[in-house]
Specification:
The complex is a heterodimer of chains A (about 300) and B (about 40).
Chain A lengths: L5 H12 L5 H6 L3 H17 L6 H25 L1 H4 L17 H22 L2 H22 L6 H10 L1 H10 L4 H24 L1 H7 L4 H4 L2 H24 L5 H23 L4 H27 L4
Helix pairs in contact in A: 3-4, 3-9, 3-15, 4-6, 4-7, 4-9, 6-7, 7-8, 7-9, 8-10, 9-10, 10-13, 10-15, 13-14, 14-15
Chain B lengths: L2 H38 L2
Classes of the chains: A mainly alpha (about 300), B mainly alpha (about 40).
Chain lengths: ~300, ~40
Amino acid sequence: MTELSEAPATAAIRLATNAGAGVADYVEILKPRVVSLVVFTGFVGLVLAPGHIHPVLAAVAVLCIAVGAGASGAINMWYERDIDALMQRTQGRPLPAGRMMPGEALGFGVVLAIGAVLILGLGVNWVAAELLALTIGFYVFVYTIWVKRRTPQNIVIGGAAGAFPPMIGWAAVSGDIGWGAIALFAIIFFWTPPHFWALSLYRAGDYAVAGVPMLPVTAGPRETKRQMLLYTLVLWPVTAAPWLLGVAGGLYGGGSVLLNAVFTGAAIQVLRDDGDRSARRMFAFSLLYLFLIFSLLLVDHFGGGRQ
Amino acid sequence: MTAMDRGEERQRTIRARNRALVAVLVGLVALFYAITIVRMGG
């Protein structure tokens, strides 16, 4: 990790002349765009769970999920500052750009992580808090530190970390992990590989420079596209699970079939396209796909789609 | 950028960070208060 010696030195020079990281830098290392989707899926888990929770405690649970996700992002940025400095997409982040000292990011992330878990445990319940701790630990130790730089299946394994939030929301209400929560987990888990591989298809050069073994770098674009299509096919039965389990009704069932048709169609287009355009379009659609799947679950729940 | 500009920039950044920290602390107090009231209410 020879690159690591450069970033803190640059940061130290900047910090000696400036005032250190600004508020915007602290917000940026929390990866707010990722957090927004995590919060939304966590909220849906909370709404769909059987039982009742006081609105204030529900808000506390959502806040803790958001802070925990942000803390994971901050610790991830601390650990990955060497490869972030090498990739065009991430060079402007506070650590590689020298606007923040590595210790600041790590301290900030750890304090937020511990705070979020403790407040969730004390305020809501300890099952949800343990799941949040597991999520943060999985993202930091298993995904960031262990698998990301070692295997092309990094995204498949690491996808579990992003899939936990609806389960945390569910546990915040019910105090346990039901089949419905597992179904919501599975949707995000199987959605993650085609989502990230679409991005890594047109960012393969960046990942190759940084030495991250993303599938397009190690197995080539053709195999990546084939696997993306397979995952979109797996999503058909997986997204049907909430409907089959009675967690959602016909409105969701019908909507998810339509969304799966478009997502699978996008994967077929990516497979046929030798350029980047289809992959970029599929990446953008994958975000909309997950948002709409979880929106359908909400609309179905409140709109009485269960007949 | 002159030394004076850098000094002003430094003061602005520190002030903004302090304000954000105050907001977080006040938010935490409000949060603990709300949780306590709800939990005590049964």
